[in-house]
């Protein structure tokens, strides 16, 4: 870290001490400020970002020990070094017990001061690095395997491999349960950012104000219950990947804030004024028709174009039935390990039922079905009656699904217009991109 | 910068101060003159510590040295034989007004005999030159450098001074070039 990015706050009631120490650290290239008493120090701590505080124990009003206690209630990260006179070493020991990094006696040996500050900052850096590595290991251990050998999934994996090595923004589209987050993690794991965290934000699960605070963090006192400064997901994703799940559900105000942070990589925490920088890559996912949302004005067009740089479409499970058996065996092995049950496989009837099912909940539904079957199975094979597929097995569609009707209608309009996409899109009253998307989705081809 | 004025104060060795001129001219490529200035060091003496307050000396020079009024391009360096301190630290080799026009350097702690070793004028001058260039570097807005051989590397002990060169590293040299 560049020294100018490291903030040191000197707290002492004596002007000469504040000035001397500030000058000393400024000559070292640090960002320095000072406070003449504990109250001013708390205000400055709240307003800015500080790595280290040098606090005089003896101050009128709130003394250094009480200040240390107050700091520790709201900020666990800042390093506090207390300054004391020889006569008050006992107090310094008390300060150590309260969470001070170390104490230093007046007058300060310059060499000792430099070494102590270097040591403290190095330890802070190691603690932060350690936390980041723990997060990364935890993220990586959670990364599941993408299972599938169908041509559809091979195409997806090729796209993942291609885009992972770039820093391009990726939009993953697909029905619920198709494994969008898994693909996002695969992109992150294949990128140069893999040693930094991938941070997931489920945009659909939060209210406007909660999402804003979740994304950008908040300062202490920003709203009722905000007792601590909290880093947002954007800040936590520094160096890594920010995965915005269900991005189509973000409200318009947060869309604007998000667009700004994606473009500038800068933001301010809720209730704060300090500009925070974060270097992250955006991968987002949605099961919504964003083009439609843009037309309806519920999704900002500029954000849509900023996010929709490289699209990966995940096929529904019913569109890659060839993968069902492999996926089912994959989940069987996973739950066998987890539940310590030696179930060998599926009976032919059970496998037939799995292949015939329509899987509206996609891979997630299949996973849950296998898990439930594993719980109820008594022998070493999963039977048909172990599978929770009662009402949903092989529904007879007879071409009556809305999707089938849509497909037939688009095909007819395309035929009537000689497969002229612009004309057909005008007739359908949708834009060309959407029409191309539908043609790809339904696998429509011009008859020769 | 048009000129650097060297002020030997408090009975500083004229020979030692005179020996600074050539290396400073070579380093900063500007005029270097030894000037006369009268100042009573006892006004800055702290009897409790047995040392002289360097911050107060700088403030005095800023307001009393007439050479600073001779143009914006003049900077002044006081050279003293006694031990300096700033109130919170036990001692300093020197102090400068970062981005300003005054500095003070002491050779009190630079002499080998201070550490029980035989006198060595060449070593004393070498250390003195480095500290003087270091403080002038601060006057010209440079901050401490992480390169161990750069003259702007922070030194708290004489051994640290001996380890570094009397010249600027490439980055500090480049930053300095913007100043001139």
How is this structure best described in words?
The complex is a heterodimer of chains A (448) and B (180). By secondary structure, chain A is an alpha/beta fold. Chain A folds into 4 domains: 3-130, Response regulator (Rossmann fold), CATH 3.40.50.2300; 143-313, 3-Layer(aba) Sandwich (Rossmann fold), CATH 3.40.50.300; 320-386, Helicase, Ruva Protein, domain 3 (Orthogonal Bundle), CATH 1.10.8; 402-442, Arc Repressor Mutant, subunit A (Orthogonal Bundle), CATH 1.10.10. Chain A has helices at 15-27, 38-47, 64-74, 89-97, 110-142, 151-164, 180-189, 208-216, 233-236, 252-264, 290-296, 301-307, 324-339, 348-356, 362-376, 402-416, 421-428, 432-442, and strands at 7-11, 31-35, 52-56, 79-84, 102-105, 170-173, 198-202, 217-218, 230-231, 241-245, 266-268, 275-277, 281-286, 310-313, 345-346, 381-382. In chain A, helix 2 (38-47) runs parallel beside helix 3 (64-74) and helix 13 packs across helix 15. Chain A is elongated and about 90 Å long. The termini of chain A are far apart. With 180 residues, chain B is an alpha/beta fold. Chain B has a single domain (3-131), classed as Collagenase (Catalytic Domain), CATH 3.40.390.10. Chain B has 6 helices and 8 strands; from the N terminus they run E-H-H-E-E-E-H-E-E-E-E-H-H-H. In chain B, strands 2-1-5-8-7 form a 5-stranded mixed sheet, sandwiched between helices. Chain B has a 3-stranded mixed sheet with strand order 3-4-6. In chain B, a hairpin with a 5-residue loop joins strand 7 (94-96) and strand 8 (102-106). The longest helix of chain B is centred in the C-terminal third of the chain and has 19 residues, at 121-139. The N and C termini of chain B lie close together (6 Å). The relative contact order of chain B is 0.15. At the A-B interface, helix 1 and helix 5 of A face loops of B.
